[in-house]
Amino acid sequence: MNFTKSLKSAVILLLIFAYSGTVYSQNDDCGFVYTPEAKLYFDSIKDRVKVLEEQFLQQRLTSRNSTLLSSVAIKAHIIRQTDGTGGLTVIELNDAIADMNSIYADAALEFYLCEGINYIDDDNLYDYETYDEADLFADHSVNEVMNIFFTDAVVSSGSGSSLCGYARFPGGTITENILMANSCATNGSTLSHEVGHFFALTHTHGDNNDFGSTEELVDGSNCESTGDFICDTAADPQLNYINVDINCLYTGNTQDANNDFYQPDPLNLMSYASKECRTIFSPQQLARINAINQTSRDNLICTAFNAEFIADETDSCDANLTVNFTDNSSGATSWSWDIDGDDIIDYTTQNVTHTYSTYGDYDVALTISDGTNSINKVKSQYINVGAQETTTTTITLNLTLDNFPMETTWQFLDENNTVIDSGGPYQDPLDDYATKTATFTISPDLCYKFEIFDTYGDGICCASGNGFYELLADDNSVLVTEGDIGFGVSNNFFSGTLSTNNFSKASIGLFPNPSSTLITIKSETTPDSYSIYNTLGQVLRTSKVKSDADLKLNIEALNDGIYFIKLNKDNGNQVLSFIKN
């Protein structure tokens, strides 16, 4: 025990309790801070994230998505006393990871230990204060894995308050590290809460821990721009041990700026409800976790045992596409490939060649084994056979470069592979972080391809900046956006006229969410019909819509849980999610 540190902490705590009349307002329980740097980074990727979120929600209702879970590497660091005593036990660690895996399975993720446990025997770190962070991470953090440090106590050096733990958003420095107090790591919810921050989830009450400070409205009208930036979580004035009872029911009477009473969800894992209440993520939170894993956290690897692969072709305008898949895994002794997302093993060789003969977007999943353990890599909608339909007459490219612009090139081709336009390599340092724009005119009933390349293979979003590209239709709707392109990607478009409605782009909302009795759907365009699905993709209810009155749905007969509602009009549709509680 470091006597000087302990005395300092005691003095700080005495001052705090002398100043404050309430304990819960000082003990935030989570040390997460939504920094300006993190906000700037998330703003730079949110368009890409939104596209991936929508794909994730849609995929739950399709047949070409794999149910395998992508494996995420954890490096566990257990801090003990200098003499090697104390610290989290191996059983407690395994149980904590198992609890987290049961929760994150709905985000299509699972976690596994990378190269065993790193034990750190140090009395000073056993009673950890946040000003120890720089030295701890410099000495022990492993690059490109999720580092979780488990210690006896975590104390904020700034306030002196005890913390259960803290993590950081992607973007910026030292964001691959999580600190956990042992007692909180084993309570079933706090570890998943902190890992939620790691995957870009804020608290449901927003980025400010002052009670009642959220600007999010109960009716959800500003849910995308404030609060937790998630639209299927209820606005939250900040839950605590006072306004949530022992049955995990909200008992407060706080009102928003419209004088509507808040109806927050104490079961949400990103809330400040008591730890035993927090058990679920909302569907959009799950979608965000999955999207961030595919973008900002796609660099997480375990060098000793890691599943990875690439394909030489991923897109084709034609109905036939032959793809060569190359295994880039480490530590594998056997391989199992599902190349079309139907959960059936298609090949068991290390590298495979497959010909697709049916239009569609396909998940590809690789499972590897080292003879003892197995892990997976799933790439969602990785293979695109056929082309995305669009009725636009122009396609606009907005390209934001990283700080190695000389690595980036692109080209836009017609169906005869004639280059219509191209760009790059760009100049260093003149074009560092620069944004380039080009507009292509396209003709009806023809196929076009956009290709973008990075010669170093690290994409333009992650290692050296927040670069990305987006392709926009003439109404400014996003056709595609991406930044983690590796060595390169391609996108196909068919300027057909089959997609004649804009319902898939219509503004649609659902409230209240969660609800125990009724939900109301607001849509600027009335759909023709709707279907309600459970998380297994089973249809529970289908109905035609004749007027807005048909969009007020009684859900009392549904069991508590997560559901999806698919709204259809002509050949367009949208999928929303809701929680019955």
Question: Any overview of this molecule?
Answer:
By secondary structure, the chain is an alpha+beta fold. It folds into four domains: 3-198, Collagenase (Catalytic Domain); 309-385, Immunoglobulins (Immunoglobulin-like); 388-494, Jelly Rolls, CATH 2.60.120; 503-580, Immunoglobulin-like, CATH 2.60.40. 16% of the residues lie in helices and 32% in strands. The chain is built from eight helices and 31 strands. The protein has helices spanning 3-19, 36-59, 90-104, 123-126, 133-140, 182-185, 190-198, 283-294, and strands spanning 29-30, 70-80, 109-121, 127-129, 146-151, 153-155, 162-166, 177-181, 309-311, 315-316, 321-327, 334-338, 352-356, 360-369, 374-385, 388-389, 394-400, 408-414, 419-423, 435-441, 447-454, 468-472, 478-482, 488-494, 508-511, 518-523, 529-534, 539-544, 552-554, 561-569, 572-580. The strands form seven sheets. Strands 1, 2, 3, 4, 5, 6, 7 and 8 form an eight-stranded mixed sheet that branches. The protein has a five-stranded mixed sheet with strand order 16-24-21-18-19, with no helix packed on it. A hairpin with a 4-residue loop joins strand 27 and strand 28. Helix 2 crosses helix 8. Residues 1-27 and 497-501 have low confidence and may be disordered.
Summarize, please:
This protein has 581 residues and is an alpha+beta fold. 16% of the residues lie in helices and 32% in strands. A hairpin with a 4-residue loop joins strand 14 and strand 15.
